[in-house]
Amino acid sequence: MSTCVILAAGQGKRMRSPLPKVAHSVLGVPMVIRVVREALAAGLSDPVVVVGFGRERVIPLLEEEGVRWAVQEEQLGTAHAVSCGLGLDLEDGVVVLLGDVPLLRSSTIARLEKARMESKAGIAVLSTEPPDPTGYGRMILQGEELEAIVENRDATPEQLLIREINTGLMSFEGSLLARLLEGVRPDNDQGEYYLTDTIALARAEGISCVAVHADDWKEVAGINDRIQLSAANLHLRNRVCNSLLAEGVDIPDPSSVWLEDSVRFGRRVIIGRCCRVSGSSSIGDGCVLGDGCIVSDTYVPAGTILPPYTVMVGDAQE
C-alpha cells in the first residue's frame, strides 16, 4: 500500500495572519486536516505531515487526528521537505500532497496513483489548466510523456506560453523517489531543492514520467491568501449544498446558508434562509429549521420544528 507525505511547513505570509496557513479552516475544518482525511479515504496508509513554521499551532491538530508528523527545521524547498518526511520502508509508492489544497477529493488522489501504477511510470504528476497560469510551474510534455517541469521564475518566454501547469501533487515509485532526491541540487535563482527536478533526473535515466490532468482546476488550487480562502469556503459550501439538494434536502436559498460537510442530515429536511449548521450536528428526518437558525454540535430529533432564529449549541448526543 502506498504511503503519503503531506507538505505543510510554509508560513503563508500573504495570509497576513499569526496562524500558519494550513491551520486556517475551510468550512469548519483546518485545511491540512481536510487533506489528511482525503488521503486516508483514497486508501493511502499512515500519512506523515511535514511541519515547520508555527508547528506549535499545527502539531496539536495532527495529534488530535492521530496523524504522524515530521519537522522541516529550515525551509529549503519541496524536495528537502519530502526527504524530512520519508520513512525507511519505501518498497511501495509514495504520494506527495500539499496541506494547502483543501478542495482535493480522494477520488482524484486515487486516480493519480492508479495512473502511475497502470502506466508503470516511475512518477505521475497531477496537472491542470487554470484560467491564468502565471506563477505556476509549466509542464514540458513530449506526446504523453512528461519531460520536465519548469518553475515559472526559471521558464523561458516560450515556456511561459504553456498553459498546462503543475499542481504540486505527485506519485512516485518509492525506492526511486529516495534515490532521485539524492540527486536534486539547488541550481536555481532561489537556491532551493525543487521536488519537480526529480522529473528531469528520472528522464535522464530513461524512466517514464506521466501527467494526469485534473479537469477542475479549483479542486487542485492551493490557498495563498484570504481571498483564495474565502473562495475555497464558497466552493465547498456550494458542493455541500448541491449534494444535499440532490439527496432531497429542501434549501430554498442555498447562497445564504452555511452547512458544514461534517453534519448529518436526514430525509425531508427543510433548511430556511441564513441558517448555520456546523460541527458534529445531526439533523433527524423531517426536521424544519426556520430562517436564521444556528445549530452547532447538536442532535435535533426527527420531526423537530425549530422556530426562526433558534440557537442550539453543544449537545450532539442522539
Q: What is the topology?
A:
Elements lengths: L2 E6 L16 E2 L2 E2 H11 L3 E7 L3 H11 L2 E4 L6 H8 L7 E6 L7 H14 L3 E6 L9 E5 L2 E6 L14 E9 H10 L13 H8 L4 E5 L12 H21 L11 E2 L4 E2 L4 E2 L4 E3 L3 E2 L4 E2 L4 E3 L2 E2 L4 E2 L4 E3 L5
Parallel strand pairs: 1-4, 1-6, 4-5, 7-11, 12-15, 13-16, 14-17, 15-18, 16-19, 17-20, 18-21
Antiparallel strand pairs: 2-3, 6-10, 7-10, 8-9
Task: Note down, in words, how this protein is organized.
This protein has seven helices and 21 strands. By secondary structure, it is an alpha/beta fold. The chain folds into two domains: 3-213, Spore Coat Polysaccharide Biosynthesis Protein SpsA, Chain A, CATH 3.90.550.10; 247-313, Hexapeptide repeat proteins (UDP N-Acetylglucosamine Acyltransferase, domain 1, 3 Solenoid). A hairpin with a 2-residue loop joins strand 8 (138-142) and strand 9 (145-150). The chain is elongated.
- Write down the overall geometry: elongated
The average pLDDT value, as a whole number, equals 94
Please trace the helix and strand order, writing H or E for each element.
EEEHEHEHEHEEEEHHEHEEEEEEEEEE
Strand fraction equals 25-35%
Enumerate how many helices there are, as a single number: 7
The name of the CATH superfamily of the largest domain reads: Spore Coat Polysaccharide Biosynthesis Protein SpsA, Chain A
Largest sheet descriptor: 7 strands, mixed
Share of helical residues: 25-40%
Supply the CATH architecture of the largest domain.
Alpha-Beta Complex
Helix vs. strand class: alpha/beta
Low-confidence stretches: none
- Please give the number of β-strands: 21
Query: Per CATH, what is the topology of the largest domain?
Result: Spore Coat Polysaccharide Biosynthesis Protein SpsA, Chain A
**Domain unit count:** 2
What is the first-to-last residue Cα distance? 37 Å
Sequence of strands across the biggest β-sheet:
5-4-1-6-10-7-11
User: What's the CATH first level of the largest domain?
Assistant: Alpha Beta
Radius of gyration: 21 Å
